[in-house]
Amino acid sequence: MIEVKDLVKKYDNHLAVDHLTFTVPRGQILGFLGPNGAGKSTTMNIITGYISATEGSVSINGHDIYEEPEEAKKSIGYLPEQPPVYTDMTVKEYLGFVAELKRVPKKEREPQIASALAKTGTVDVAKRLIKHLSKGYRQRVGIAQAIIGNPEVIILDEPTVGLDPVQIIEIRDLMKELAKEHTVILSSHILSEISAVCDTVMIINNGRLVVSDTVENLPQHLNAQNSCRVVIKGTEDLVKPLMEELEDVKELSLEGDGEFVTVTVTSDSQVDLREDIFFACARAGLPIYEMSNVTRNLEDIFLELTRSEETTEELPTEGEIKEESEENADVSDL
After folding, report:
1. 13 close to 22: Cβ distance less than 8 angstroms
2. Nearest Cα residue to 21 out of 56, 67, 52
3. What is the rounded CA–CA span in Å between residue 116 and residue 95?
4. Residue 167: count of CB within 10 angstroms of its CB
């Protein structure tokens, strides 16, 4: 569905995207992650045809973004971080305007607008001016404009920024529904959101691909280790030497309050220290109140995979982006 090959973007002597290659199969939700300045927005701007690449190719639904720009752009629906809405229009007027810009045939416009309103839950506000809508509803209108024209690919950039918890859940459910008919790329700094809705996660840093895999498989790309958290009744003076005597301990941290000590012990991935900890505490007469393996969440994984390199990307100026976007401008860009 989406195929990016050896993508490079240079601004003067600065390399913003560094030979990036990836594919996104049909019907998946891809979480696109990276630190600020890692090259995410540059990559999405290239995929949507907003700016050009220095090298490499982008294919959307079999259409090259440079050789067949109109067909490729017809296959993309894009919601930038700031929804591109005209606030003095009603929701329905605006979607009609979008349908016209996207060259949707006249006989198909009303059905497509009705479908977009239904999918995004905006039927009840269709006749209201956009400037009178809440931020959550404006986001929904932004998504509605993205799916007008029934594009195969939907790209969403920070779709839940500034929303309240209820609105966030609603937008997440909407993204899952969209994935039944579209391929979705989601760029977000909210890592719990990526975990909740995405099938695959791609992390980039300094314009380069760090890892691409399912959320479940991401821990396999980390330094192999096994951590165990134990709450022991006793003092640090009693617990610390006991833990230090254990074999195969790579890292050890303790935090006590005078009555209980919380211990985190790390070993190689193939070593399970739980039995050794249990018997050591039993011999010393120290009761164990809690013991559990420490699992890493997406935040831990993200930080470990990106902290090894400092992100050095200098973002292009507005003038540089505007100049390129004008060169690539087309009415199908919306």
Report:
1. no
2. 56
3. 9
4. 17
Q: Which residue has the tokens 């017809």?
A: 74
All structural domains of the chain = 2-75+151-220+303-333 (3.40.50.300), 223-295 (3.30.70.3190)
Question: Which residue type occupies 298?
Answer: L
- Residue keyed to tokens 């005078």: 258
Angle of helix 135-147 relative to helix 91-101, nearest 10 degrees, comes to 30
Count Cβ atoms below 10 Å from residue 277 Cβ, excluding itself. 21
Could you tell me which of 66, 7, 83 has the C-alpha nearest to residue 40?
Answer: 7
Query: H or E segment at 7?
Result: strand 2-11
Closest CA to 325 of 59, 16, 41: 41
- Residue 326: pLDDT band (50, 70, 90) is low
Helices (H), 148-229: 165-178, 191-197
* Torsion sign, CA atoms 213, 219, 220, 221: positive
In this structure, what token pair is assigned to residue 223?
Answer: 């330094």
**Confidence (pTM):** 0.73
The token pair at 204 is 């980039």
Neighbouring residues of 175: CB distance < 8 A, sequence distance ≥ 6: 29, 156, 159, 184, 186, 197
Q: What is the DSSP string of 245-294?
A: TSTT--EEEEEE-SSEEEEEEEE-TT---HHHHHHHHHHHT--EEEEEEP
Mean pLDDT, rounded, of the chain: 85
Q: Per-residue pLDDT averaged across 84-91, rounded?
A: 94
The angle formed by the CA atoms of residues 214, 74 and 333, to the nearest 5 degrees, is 100
Task: Kindly state the DSSP code that residue 152 receives in the 8-state scheme.
Answer: S
Percent of the chain with pLDDT over 70: 89
Helix, strand or coil, per DSSP, at residue 319: helix
Burial category of 195 from C-beta neighbours within 10 Å (exposed 0-12, middle 13-18, buried 19 and up): middle
Angle between helices 135-147 and 165-178 (to 10 degrees): 10
Q: Output phi, psi for 62, to 5 deg.
A: 85, 0
